[in-house]
Amino acid sequence: xxxxxxxxxxALCLLCAGALGAGWLTLxxxxxxxxxxxxxxxxxxxxxxxxxxxxxxxxxxxxxxxxAVVAVEDQxxxxxxxVDFLAxxxxxxxxxxxLSFQEGGSTITQQVAKNLCLGQEKSLERKVAEVFLAWxxxxxxxxxxxxxxxxxxxxxxxxxxxxxxxxxxxxGVDPSGMTQSQCTLLAGVPNAPSVYDPxxxxxxxxxxxxxxxxxxxxHNYLTQAQASAILAA
Length: 233
Fold this sequence. Notes:
By secondary structure, the chain is mostly helical. It has twelve helices and no strands. It has helices at residues 2-39, 42-50, 63-73, 85-98, 108-118, 124-140, 143-151, 163-171, 180-188, 193-196, 202-218, 224-232. It starts with a helix and ends with a helix. The radius of gyration is 20 Å and the shape is globular. Helix content is 67%, strand content 0%.
């Protein structure tokens, strides 16, 4: 009985320490969230993106491109509230297993929050602040507005920081003029721009495109016949 009581006390201590640690981390993340918005309100940051030359609104994006990005980046984008707790939990387990911080489990909304407010530095405190900012974005902007902020603020390689400059650099067309093949190719680039840059590593970019198309099939955006036709283009 003494051993069982000792084990129970150890377990309770660990649970209490975990709860205290989570509470401390939440407070630190909340403080960072408040600090970021005090420096510059979210609405001002959004307007800065929208005022950029070449900003592409959602309605000028081909549906294939939208579907491709959602399929490969954030499958539940149009249904979650800014944070996908299933993806976040899975990423956390993988990070703990590998003792790394490689998988963030970030949704498109969280990536917008990071791009607008936090930069690319990784820490648990910043991840918590990212969650608060994502909820803020979801409360103030539509999914379409959040998506267009995303594709107008991410890096596509070759010095391109928005979808318009990327489609022009790689294909010589505006986003609205991209073919299905071009849409699926471009959707895969931001995952690792230096690796999947079509002008630098065309073979790797095509491999990534195949992953994008396979994900679209898996999530019912394309039939297998449509996927084969896109990849053959």
